[in-house]
């Protein structure tokens, strides 16, 4: 009797096997409302369609472009943010998961900015709205002849966590699709709180743009991270807090950052960066590779900086023009913590204010840096040295930068579609250094962003 | 039938001693039933020529010795709690030395019914060992008396004396969580009086043990296997804190001590004033749309002052007894500890080289901490004996831990950027002040009822609430740099200025448990088989709310020099609305329902306990993130059937063999599942939640041999094997430009090992030693970077490694001196060794961060100075054992170019030193 019971119990235990039922998981997915066609001048929510030529549109809250949808701005369209930059909620952004196209023309510019009463130099660095934030699956972003101004309000959780932590100032344009195309041509990015433009993954062509006073106490005009492939040329970066152009493979992805940076002009960059040991013109960092030629670097805190953790073996550079009116900047033409050295084709001030590049109307010595302690607060920098005013940066005859570029060394990657209304016009390097070659083929801007209406 | 009188067997063995003129009496006190020697029993001898009364207390091996007794007739009386009184008379005359054997008979209630009896003094080693021996589980216990005379002040430190247990320490060097047999804290749950209680810790489901003062404990049990009536989420085991019970006779115990830390011989303690800071975030105190201004963030959190020679304080008191004919037992106990610690730390940021996958140091930080901890514990336990068949128990406990932590971090060298040689580079300094309040309230009402002769029921209803708050945690960020003047080569120090952003953070969470347990046991006797049939169930509803706000402050104007006085600087609030949409603002609810059936069969020397448990879990959460973000709400449902069986076989009266099998699970923590980012200011890396995390399941086998030669002596040896599915481990994962520390499931892991536990006592001297070998393995994918002709690339490879936190070797060794008679002296020297273990799993091949093996030594001593008065001293961390992390790959660099790094040696990652701590106190017992 007892033995039967005993064995029975034992057998019962042995045959009982553990059973672990798989989890039934129900995690909410992002609630996406269908894109609404544009019917009024005041936009809100999820939108798609066309912003018509000559019309002005307003938005007070976040706008979203769904995956697969397109928002297209015809020439002469204006899209104005109604914000104060004091909080995430009051600095609305454009969240782009679809395609965003702004087709301004040389005659009819587009504006993605703020209303006229706020569109003054007093709004520099205020971050009145949240910028254009593109998601990892967004479509192409094509921006031509467009003014993007005063973005940079604090990020909330709407922002991509891969890019921001809550409270970070937002960049005026972020592109994050490794398979997508990002084209920025003939446009202005003005008065941002932090970076003017940040690409984390993507194929790019950034040509002939003007970046003015980007970053208040830190921030680059153009900040390129992991998986960025393409060409950056004929851009003017004036008065950026840190670098004009920073290229890094920071962040992870299957594609290594590879960017050609050539024929750009940088003036007075890097003077506001609070942290020491950052760059002040062009930086290549953390595993980035690329080619760096024919750039003009005027009174920037640091020259070309290639840090030891960049993919130094696959970076080539030469033919930079370095000018400084302050011995401190001359001392950093070869940045002391970088690997870049003086190359055969480089042209440099040997002592302060020698080898003046001879810009048509811009006086490179108008501000006496030798009298100030760097870093400078933005209030200590006159607008004339951080914005493009109505200057002409063409090189006068006799400029030491003329005919000193290498026009053959770089074959542009042209990683994005070329030509036509929706394609890029990616230009190769010029025989003249800087963004304004003598043949007029480079940057076509001759005035600051705010001078246009 | 009850037997009301003692059975005694007395034998005299007469011998002569050469060097004593007066007779002496030797004796041994043992348990009549088991034959085990009894320690700490008082023997009263009265009579002789002068009729004096003399006392002796039996030693650790149950023996006692009375010397220089005048010849004559004596009456001898032995009283021990839980035993019937023993009386005899004897005469000592010409015999120089006499021996006596005393066997005591137990009172009717045996240990299994101890809850009903409620009269016995539990807090001694003997009781603890008896519990272990009788348990159907694989279990180790530590008694209150052992805790009292040990160097350990918190429960966590007590646990590390148990075989197979190592500790995870908090950043002040105190143990916080246990790791049992290499199984991380997540696999071990914590009970108070057998009830699971919630945690005030934002990140962990189970209670940190450093919140409990050790002196409130009656007994600490560490269980390494499960029976079906126990909750199933204990893959590694359970820690059960049995709080003190009402004593059988009125007693009062008071102790007070003062302490000092070695570090304060050379350093000051940094304190700050948290008074002006708000208790909650401005958003919480006002409205959701409120825009915070600088008025909400007082400067006091950004400043600090120095305090010389802070003195730690420790107070404890308990009073208890029985009323109404012993029917009602009451115990009230309180404990207060206030201590100060300084910690110094060096930390290297690391990265993986893109060309050859080798680890590189990227930055070095010097960190200083000043930590004040105030621990308050209050508890009361009532038991009421309605009649012999029914009893009720009420427990209420409140624990509070307040922590004031000042931290200074100087990131002195960015080893890649801005560095032109030793001593140059970017410098970022940050000051952080943190005031943390954790509290736990637990109320438990339970009852036991003998319904019929064979049927009994017991039930428990419990309410607990744990809260954790870190209001106005302030981080002041400063920057400077040292560069080399290119013309003179002199080092130039840039002025110290405010960084672009400083922060104020508010964290708040509460965790509320309501649970009920019910169980019926039916005893049968079928032939020679005694069978207990138990069935029962439990339900728990756990609700958690979490609130989080971070405010960024930016200097206005942007560039400001910091001169040490923050009132000279001005800020503005960058995001006045706080972080309203942060995912750490969430409500979560977990409901667990369970039922079980269990049989315990006893047949001759066999005892078989087995059955199965069913547990159903439902977790839901709702966070404040916008609807456009994935994971705003979520629910996870699953159930498990967890069988278990234990066979206990008594080889002889003194030898036991146990074989156990059980199936268990481990649930992810809320913090890990809710899709948040960041939120732990102490983390070296940003953390990220993973809503797709699965629970871990495991099958466990354990074989153990126990030998109890006599007294408290024991020899325990065992082997164990665990097979884990979906173990949860943290890994560093790159997403975008960020590196996240994120929990993942990592396939299948195996964990096996062996342990030995030895205790040997002589009359006044004892040795305790234990050693555990553990081996675990898990294979996960890693990345390997390499260089190609055209650029840099990487591949995915598999790597086998031990589980996070698992050490191969854990050893403990203690020497005890125990003399309750003449000297009234107790002392313990404890030594512990834990071999290296993985601290952080890297995503790159061979880049895991390991904690180096370490040895620790602690000492304590207690001396009776008057009848009821004792003084005691404790010294912790005598060897100044550091906490050290490294990557086990050679550092490639030049000696001297980077501090702490040596060419060819393992890459140095972190070193924290705590210094020794001293405590001196007095105790009164009535």
Short description:
Chain A is mainly β. Helix content of chain A is 5%, strand content 28%. The model of chain A has no long low-confidence stretch (mean pLDDT 90).
SSE topology sketch:
The complex is a heterodimer of chains A (453) and B (926).
Chain A: H1 2-15, E1 19-20, E2 24-27, E3 36-37, E4 42-51, E5 56-65, E6 70-73, E7 78-81, E8 94-96, E9 99-103, E10 110-113, E11 132-134, E12 141-144, E13 146-149, E14 173-175, E15 181-185, E16 188-190, E17 197-199, E18 202-207, E19 210-212, E20 222-224, E21 228-233, E22 236-238, E23 245-248, E24 258-262, E25 265-267, E26 282-285, E27 289-293, E28 296-298, E29 305-306, E30 315-318, E31 321-323, H2 327-331, E32 347-348, H3 383-386
Parallel strand pairs in A: 3-4, 4-5, 4-6, 5-7, 5-8, 6-9, 7-10, 8-11, 9-12, 10-13, 11-14, 12-15, 13-16, 14-17, 15-18, 16-19, 17-20, 18-21, 19-22, 20-23, 21-24, 22-25, 23-26, 24-27, 25-28, 26-29, 27-30, 28-31, 31-32
Chain B: E1 24-31, E2 42-47, E3 52-57, E4 63-66, E5 72-79, E6 86-92, E7 97-104, H1 114-117, H2 125-134, E8 139-143, H3 144-149, H4 155-159, E9 165-169, E10 175-180, E11 188-192, E12 195-196, E13 217-223, E14 237-243, E15 251-261, E16 269-271, H5 282-285, E17 305-307, E18 312-323, E19 328-352, E20 359-385, E21 390-414, E22 425-450, E23 455-484, E24 491-493, E25 497-498, E26 502-526, E27 529-555, E28 571-573, E29 586-603, E30 606-623, E31 633-652, E32 655-666, H6 670-673, E33 686-687, E34 696-707, E35 714-725, E36 728-735, E37 738-745, E38 748-761, E39 765-787, E40 792-801, E41 809-819, E42 825-834, E43 837-840, E44 849-851, E45 854-866, E46 869-876, E47 883-890, E48 906-913, E49 917-925
Parallel strand pairs in B: 1-7, 11-14, 33-37
Antiparallel strand pairs in B: 1-4, 2-3, 2-5, 5-6, 8-13, 9-10, 11-12, 13-14, 15-18, 15-49, 16-17, 18-19, 19-20, 19-48, 20-21, 21-22, 22-23, 23-24, 23-25, 23-26, 26-27, 27-28, 27-29, 29-30, 30-31, 31-32, 32-34, 34-35, 35-38, 36-37, 38-39, 39-40, 39-41, 41-42, 42-45, 43-44, 44-47, 45-46, 46-49, 47-48
